[in-house]
Each structure stands twice: as structure tokens, then as C-alpha cells.
Amino acid sequence: MKTTELQSIKQRYNIVGNCEALNRALDVALQVAPTDLSVLIVGESGVGKEIIPRVIHDNSPRRREKYFAINCGSIPEGTIDSELFGHVKGSFTGAINDSPGYFGVANKGTLFLDEVGELPMATQARLLRVLENGEYIPVGGTEIRKTDVRIVAATNVNIRQAISEGRFREDLYYRLNQVPVQMPPLRERGEDIVLLFRLFAMQMAEKYRMDKVVLTDDAKQLLMRYKWPGNVRQLKNITEQISILSTERQITPEILARFIPQDQETTQLATIHSEGEHSFENEREILYKILFELRSNVNDMRREMSTLKKQMEDVQVTKHAPAAPLPTTQLSPIQPIHPISTPSLEDAEAEEYVEPELESLNLSDLGRQMLEKALERNGGNRKKAAMELGISDRTLYRRLKQYGLEK
User: Strand 145-146 and strand 135-136: pairing?
Assistant: First the structure.
């Protein structure tokens, strides 16, 4: 692109800056404008991505048609399909009339889908169909409609990571990314930062009829060393604050330091390095570890409960063991002799168990803790808790009474 043409575009859209990355983005926008190829603009929040689709539309054959900018992240998931593709009357509560949606209204024009990475998966499938053959079905409708819309999308998320995490369709990504445009962050634009500060300071001076704030050379260096996590939007806010709040019009590093953080590390974007990078895959690994530890705890608890149960059964059998048989000489000859049988475990459980004095306090506390945890895990359901502990409902009730837990 010729320098004169580039400067003309910058003046028309009030674009300030001469960095190579910015000029490259504008050059790509002008080259792709006459075509119908989909464009995906990638860049951090606040870098000015919204300028590119406007440049594309105004320099395309569709410039006399409608242009709509839609923030996909600000529309609720339950209504975004209706907003984009329209709906028929009665399709949902509140649908009192038919609606054509943005794809119907913007026919022959351009749609700028900002924050496209926030679209729900179902909406992504609908969008892919429109991009492939220009067809869509309104919410609640059965009739296929046609539209001829140019799509320019933008995002500040890592789409490739979103694809690996199952949050974005790979086929839609390649369909949107026919022509990529990369917008540079403000911290990489060098002296453009000073030029933008000067522009915003001049705008404030004209708007509020005050003297314009001016940076000293040292203050300019401080301004360019700052990382600007909020990019151009943050720079504009800080310039406005300085213009209003500073009593001095000559801005020194000391004055500037009161409006921007001094810790250079905290001024960077809130990113986490690879070893701690936010990922649904990492979250799944954490959940697996928690579940594994929980399973191990349950297994340990079952083993301990089994040991406790065996000890309690031994005590019960000892308590109810038959006495030594009487000598036959003491029995009446007319009285039948009935053999004394050892009580079964079920018979032992049928009698109310009273903990013997020989039972240790630690063992009693352990049994109480296991019972409480089993009830807690099963939401207070005694039947499920008994099944988990491997005891009968009757035994569970006795132990609840024994430990004073019955309610």
C-alpha cells in the first residue's frame, strides 16, 4: 500500500500510530475488502479491533448496505440464536411477532461478530451453516431462509486452545479464519504510545477548555516502559485522569507515577505460564486426583469398619456364649434335656448391644466417626448408609441410639 493511501485511511478513521504491525493490519484489511472472504481479527482487549471491520466494510462493494457490530459475549446464551437468526411468532415466551434476526436484516451487508469465541456450541453450528451455504432456520421455524452476509469476526481468546478444550469448533475456526488480521498490543507499538497520549490530551483540552497536559522526556520513557494490560482503552482513561486531576500541566515521571502502577511485573497481562496455564484439561486432572483420594479414603474407611465390625461381633459372641452344661445328675428325670446352641450373628444383632467396659474409647470414637461420615455422604439416608457400612438397618439404628445420633 502506498504511504499516501495509508495516511488517508488513518485520517479518515482517526487512527494514530506508525508502527509496522499496525500498518500491516490496515494493509491486509484494505486488500481483503473488495472480496467476500471471511476475516478473523485477533488481538487483546482494548487494542482497537473494531476499526478493522469498519475499514473493510467501507471499502467493499457492500459499503452502501447495512453494517452491524454485535458483541457475542454480551448476549445471553438463551437468546443469542434468536438475536442472530431470528424467530417465529410463538416459538418461546415473549415471541409475540416474527423476527428476522441480524442475518435477515443485514442481508447484502456486513456483520461484525465481536468476541466470537464466546458463542455457545449450538450457535457455532448454526453459524457454520450460514458461512458455508448462506442458509439458516429461525428459532421455532421449519422454513429454510437464505442470506448474503459478509462476516468479519474478532476475538481476544486463544482459539486453538479453546478448540483443544472442546469450547470452539475447529471447522468454524478455519471457515472464519480465511484471512487473519493480527492487531498488535499497545506495549509493542513504541512511540505510538506517546502519540496517542498527545491525541487524548488534546481532545480533553478542547472538550473541557483547559490547558493541554504535556509529558517531559523522562515521563515519555516511563510511559513507553509500562506494559499497558488494558491497551489503548487504558491509556485513554489514564490520560483523561491526568488531564482532570493533575494541577500541573507539565507531567513529570513523579506525577505520572501516581496514575500508573510502579511494579513492572504487575502491569503485565494476567496470564499464567505453561506450568500453570488455565485449561479444562488441567481442571479434569485435579478432579481425578480428588476422586482418587476420596476413593482411597472410602476404601480405608471400609477396611477399618470391617475390623471394627469383627471386633464388635467377637465381643457380642463372648457375651452371649452358653454357660457350661449342668451335671446330668442335677436334672429332673421327667424334664427333657434341650441342647444349648450357640447364638447366630443375626440373633446377636437382634438384641440391644451395650458396649462392654473392655471396649476402648478410641474404638468407640472411630465407630461414631465412621457412622457420621457414612450418613453425611448419603445425605442422612440411613438405608444407604447401612448398605455402605455393610450392616443391617436394625444394627444401624442401634448404633445411632448408642452414640446418641438418633433424631
Answer: antiparallel
Closest CA to 51 of 131, 189, 152: 152
pLDDT in tens, the chain (407 residues): 678 888 999 999 999 999 999 999 999 999 999 999 999 999 999 999 999 999 999 999 999 999 999 999 999 998 999 999 999 998 888 888 989 999 999 999 999 999 999 999 999 999 999 999 999 999 999 899 999 999 999 999 999 999 999 999 999 999 999 999 999 999 999 999 999 999 999 999 999 999 999 999 999 999 999 999 999 999 999 999 999 999 999 999 999 999 997 654 444 433 333 444 444 555 555 665 566 567 667 777 887 788 887 777 776 666 565 555 544 444 444 444 444 444 444 444 444 444 444 334 444 566 777 878 888 888 888 888 888 887 887 787 888 878 777 76
Q: Which residue in 222, 223, 219, 224 sits closest to 251, CA to CA?
A: 219
What are the φ/ψ torsions at residue 160 (nearest 5 degrees)? -65, -40
Q: In which region does residue 193 sit, left (phi positive, over 0), alpha (psi from -120 to 50) or beta (all else)?
A: alpha
155 phi-psi bin (left φ>0, alpha ψ -120 to 50, beta other): beta
> How many Å is the Cα radius of gyration of the chain?
38
Task: Please count the other Cβ atoms lying within 10 Å of the Cβ belonging to residue 279.
Answer: 14
